[in-house]
Amino acid sequence: MPVTIDDRTTVPGDARIRALHERLAPSREALRLVWTHCRIVCDIAEQLLETSGADADAAVVRAGSLLHDIGVYRLYDAAGRLDERNYVRHGVLGHALAREAGLPEVIARFCSRHTGVGLTPVDVRRQGLPIPAADYTAVTTEEHLVMYADKFHSKTTPPAFVSAASYAVAVQRFGVDKADRFAALAERFGEPDLPALAGRYRQPIV
Description:
By secondary structure, the protein is an all-alpha fold. It is built from ten helices and two strands.
């Protein structure tokens, strides 16, 4: 079901979200990497929203896409190195940053609800993840859509688009249930036109 926001002014626009990225980014390189990724996820999510006909709030999907990875900035050290070991914390960190910035909970949740295909308390404890053992699974249609769109692009070096087939193979290492969840998302929303996006951003598809 789509999320409901009574006061439309609570949905932040592009300028406010971009300003938050600029304030939090520790360097121009970090800003370029994370902001470009968020823009790409937004493009994917909006494309899927249109082609799937999903009943979702387009403004909320856009805001959630552009905001979802702000927690990554908190994982850079003074030398500009990203803490890959604790990368899973970026969702929880981003959620807190969004709330501190005055954004509503319904928007901040995109930060903590997009990792993988959703993390449960059991996942956190079983994998020994450095985050509180809580429920980080998507609930609304908008959260599911942004989480799914995020799977099609990676901030690797160099950044790249990820095909549905590649992600389906990769997610299997986390369990059959995770692979099934990704397959269900693909059935629900379809697959994006990655060649068109890869050409626009001049990045490869892996």
